Amino acid sequence: MSALNFAPQAAAAPFGKRVWAQATTEAGLILRNGEQAILAIVIPVAVLIGAKFFGDRLGLDLQEMAPSVLALVIWSSCLTTLAIATGFERRYNVLERISATPLGKPGILLGKGLGISLITVGQIVILSIIGLLVGWRPEFTLASFLVAALVVVLSMGAFTGLALVISGSLRPEATLALANLMYLVGMPLGILLPVDRFPAWAQPVINALPTGALGETLRQSAQGEAIFWPLLVAALWCVVTLLLARKVFTWTS
Amino acid sequence: MPVLKARDLTLSFGTKRALDGLSLQAEAGRITALLGPNGAGKTTFIRCCTGLTRPDGGSLTLFDAEPGAPEVLPRIGLMPQTTGAWSGITAARLLKYLSRLYANPQPVAQLMDLLGIDEFADTTYRRLSGGQQQAVNLAGALIGRPDLVFLDEPSAGLDPRSRRSTWDLLGRIRGDGVGILLTTHDMHEAEALADYVYIVDRGRVTAEGTVADLTVDASLEDAFLTHTTGDRQ
């Protein structure tokens, strides 16, 4: 046998390094998964290009659709991708395994949040560049940009909370089905379809959804308008879903 | 000197009583075996020790601290009973990731060499055989140079050669001062490895002692059959 010595010499790596290890590992696994890559990049790019060439005929021009696509990738990554990945981590005892390391439960959750944030920010950058290349001309002001950034962060928290509620309480197969269904149902409910396309009675309902708050903020902000009500909506959803996740999330399935 | 002390642990899942007054302890540099049928509460007990599950009652300490405490987690290693890894991660990538969580990890390449993992280092976890997955899981439990390792049925599904090689390694780890708590329902494994055996049934210890103590009148299998009531799953 080799000269390895197993005498105990245990010590944790610094907290930041542990969380970074978790975040980069999770992000790498998601990026290497072909199905996730389709959800992450191919579908949003297809929507952007579709809006460029056919948007006018559908009443959804590129100037409106480009920020909507940014909302779409935040919705898909922070909800659908995260929920499915976490559901199967519970099934395969990954969470059980890594919760018994110095990472601990808080480190796992922080690492997961950071990992999915890395992917989402990467998507936003890539899709913004593609959008600019195909003719998107946003007119952000400083105020509208700051409001948009804040609502994006709060929305990511809200969608992450929803993902953890679903994946931490249902079987992975049910999580897979529900997360994909929510992705599809959320698309028209404020993510891709502007709220003013809905009948007047339905608009307050869409505005009160996290999907409506995010989509509307990004569209208005890109036109230079800073609207503040979505801050409240996104913050409420963020707090409620994360608290609910804390209550219902279980580490094994 | 016990590094793990459990006293009168109770835990129920709904109407099912998983732990029912379980008391035991484990020491550094010794192999402690929990021998019991499926459903006896062995895996539940390990989950309590790693802080994954909280007992309803009783007391449980590791290194005189709460399970799951930040000062405890670096000092334990866990080899779960099944899987325990992302299906799409390679063996090498998983071990490198785990090593990044520790300040003084074992050298990954040497550990992989010792356990024969380098032959399938770039194979994703889902494509590994059961025995290969067990080797990766054992490496993962040892990578942080722990004081105490929990091995949940460490040789289940291994062929005789791999099983013997795993037993040799566990003997060596014990010799280096690491405490080992393993669960098994394999009499040969308990006889070959354990310094002390707890027979567990229906969430409580029904007999305990060294293998010699438990086999004064009959075989270990006879002791097991006498002190357990059967598979509940």
> Averaging pLDDT over every residue of chain A, what do you get?
92
Taking pLDDT < 50 over at least 5 consecutive residues as the criterion, the unreliable ranges of chain A are: none
CATH H-tier superfamily of chain B: P-loop containing nucleotide triphosphate hydrolases
Structural class of chain B: alpha/beta
* Structural class estimated from helices and strands of chain A: mainly alpha
Kindly provide the radius of gyration of chain B, computed on alpha-carbon positions and rounded to a whole number of angstroms. Answer: 17 Å
Helix content of chain B: 25-40%
Over all CA atoms, what is the radius of gyration of chain A?
20 Å
Global shape of chain A: elongated
Q: What is the distance, rounded to the nearest whole angstrom, between the alpha carbons of the first and last residues of chain A?
A: 38 Å
State the end-to-end CA separation of chain B: 35 Å
Strand content of chain B: 25-35%
Number of helices of chain A: 10
Could you say how many structural domains of chain B there are in total? 1
Task: Give the overall silhouette of chain B.
Answer: globular
Explain how this protein is built.
The complex is a heterodimer of chains A (253) and B (233). Chain A has one domain (15-248). By secondary structure, chain A is mainly α. Helix content of chain A is 76%, strand content 0%. In chain A, helix 1 (15-32) crosses helix 5 (104-133). The mean pLDDT of chain A is 92. Chain A has helices at 15-32, 34-58, 62-91, 94-99, 104-133, 142-167, 172-191, 203-207, 210-222, 229-248. Chain B has 233 residues and is of the alpha/beta class. Chain B has a single domain, classed as Rossmann fold, CATH 3.40.50. In chain B, 31% of the residues lie in helices and 27% in strands. Chain B is built from eight helices and nine strands. Chain B has helices spanning 42-49, 91-99, 108-114, 130-142, 160-175, 187-193, 211-214, 220-227; strands at 2-13, 16-27, 31-35, 57-62, 76-79, 148-152, 179-184, 196-201, 204-209. In chain B, the strands form two sheets. In chain B, strands 5-6-7-3-8-9 form a six-stranded mixed β-sheet, sandwiched between helices. Chain B is globular. The A-B interface holds A 1-2, 4-14, 17-18, 21-22, 25, 28-29, 32-33, 88-89, 92-94, 96-97, 99-105, 251-252 and B 28, 47, 50-52, 68, 70, 73-78, 80-89, 93, 97-98, 100-104, 106-107, 110-111, 113-114, 137, 140, 142, 144-147, 150, 168-169, 172-173, 176-178.
